[in-house]
Amino acid sequence: MRILTTREELLDARRGLNEAAGIGFVPTMGFLHEGHVSLMERSAADNEVSIATIFVNPTQFNEAADLDSYPRDPEGDAQKCRDAGVDILWMPEIPSVYADDHSTTVTVGGVTSALCGAARPGHFDGVATIVCKLFNLVRPDRAYFGEKDYQQLAMIRRMVRDLDMQLEIVGMPIVRDTDGVALSSRNKHLNGEQRAQARSLRESLEAARVAWQRGERSAAALRQVIRARIEVEPLADIDYVDVVGTRSVAPYGDAIIEDATCVAAVAVRFGATRLIDNARLDRPQPVWTP
Ligand code: AMP
């Protein structure tokens, strides 16, 4: 595996690749866990060359403290990438990514209106812009994203379609710990009590899925099932609970859901740590552990 840092090194390496070789791409912010690794292994399996990036993108953080405390482990990450079959790892510093006078922003409408788009103003502009830049630098045939960030995945699919970007977006299932908590770099910040109570995210989604299976189609009632489970936990502070269309990511509000599918999504704070999770209500949720 080659580890590159500057923009020129990456462009040079990309120019040296055979155009006919399938190129897979996994963008991340590092502090890698089995969720990231699942994307990298799939990229390595599907493509002749697999490229990953680790870049904590400052423009997608709303809170300076969240950016400053974002966990980092470059050496451990490099080893995980190597083990997962990554051929080229790009770990740039900020000046290799953004010019001092960078002044272009990519905004994807529609799918970004609700959930994290509403809760974190500017966040998805930061994500869309960096992903667009990385696609232009890496020029992959396929890029891999986790369903854990459901709205992000929907936004990237929309951006690729709307802007005619010539690559395939592959969505990968949420990887969870044995207790059902979705793996996240931010889990590191949870203390024991918070971590135990974080199980309520998945359990609340599972309760909604059971309600859906029994025929509940009122979006308000489904939200209430989810809230009721999370509110049991004294340390859990709900940011949002919503039920949205799988493609539109539009909330159903107080409607009776007539679609055959929908997604329930939650964001919950435990102290300063904000966790997100989601589930399709029409499908069983296998707990996929490493
Ligand atoms: P991040 O480093 O948090 O920006 O995540 C990089 C990629 O890994 C994104 O496509 C995420 O959706 C994906 N990812 C993060 N956590 C998980 C998880 N638990 N399961 C599957 N994919 C994940």
Write structural notes for this entry.
This protein is an alpha/beta fold and 290 residues long. It folds into two domains: 2-172, 3-Layer(aba) Sandwich (Rossmann fold); 185-280, 2-Layer Sandwich (Pantoate--beta-alanine Ligase, Chain: A,domain 2). Helices cover 38% and strands 18% of the residues. The protein contains eleven helices and nine strands. It has helices at residues 7-15, 34-46, 64-68, 74-83, 94-97, 115-119, 123-138, 150-162, 192-197, 199-213, 219-231, and strands spanning 2-4, 23-28, 49-54, 88-90, 142-146, 168-172, 236-244, 263-270, 273-280. A six-stranded parallel beta sheet has the order 1-4-3-2-5-6, with helices on both faces. Strands 7-8-9 form a three-stranded antiparallel beta sheet. Strand 2 (23-28), helix 2 (34-46) and strand 3 (49-54) form a beta-alpha-beta unit. Helix 7 packs across helix 8 (150-162) and helix 10 packs antiparallel against helix 11 (219-231). The chain is globular and about 55 Å long. It starts with a strand and ends in a 10-residue tail after the last strand. 39% of the residues are buried. Adenosine monophosphate (AMP) is lined by residues 28-29, 35-36, 38-39, 145-146, 148-149, 172, 174-175, 182-185.
